[in-house]
Amino acid sequence: MEERLYTTTQLAKELSVTARTIQLWANNGLIHVEKTLGGHRRISEKEALRLAKKLGKKLKLDSVTPNASIPVDASLNIVIIDNDLDFLKLYESQFSNWNKSLPINLHTADNGIDGLLLIGAYKPNLIIVDLDLSQFDVIEMVNTLSENPMIRHCKIMLVSHHDKNDVDAVKKIPVSVIIEEKPVSFARIKRLVEEIDSELKG
After folding, report:
1. CA angle 200-144-177, nearest 5°?
2. Domain Response regulatory: where (predicted)?
3. Within this chain, do residues 103 and 159 fall inside the same structural domain, yes or no?
């Protein structure tokens, strides 16, 4: 059986992201895209499945109906990126407790590349990222995200084991970025999430 090829628009609808997001991922080497003789972009079924698995989503693997409606989840989306798996488990446990009063969809990644994929897929209301991610320029990522109009609504919290007053990189990031020392007070995070929730409700 011949393997299915997706257009960027079809795969975008399957993953509930924009076609532009798929193109950006391709341009940055996050997904492999083939080109037809006519120069059109196509993504193999194998590559689409790999990406969907990384994002925790499932593909329908049937024909995509043009202009099909995509359900919108009204709850908060939060992405946390941290190399420390113990910290991620701690975050997951705490956010799970808050779900009784705060509608939260939590997405976690233990590296910058997967974190960027999650950000592109879910356009979160809050991003919490570890400054000390290994083999990844977090400052550049934070600056790029701050300039992205598609997630202008998003608040970014940068966390580090270092004293925030001693972090040389502080001067290189936008003033809107929140800087906190590890371990971050969960009470502080909850207040921030509640503020975001209140803003969304108007």
Report:
1. 55
2. 77-197
3. yes
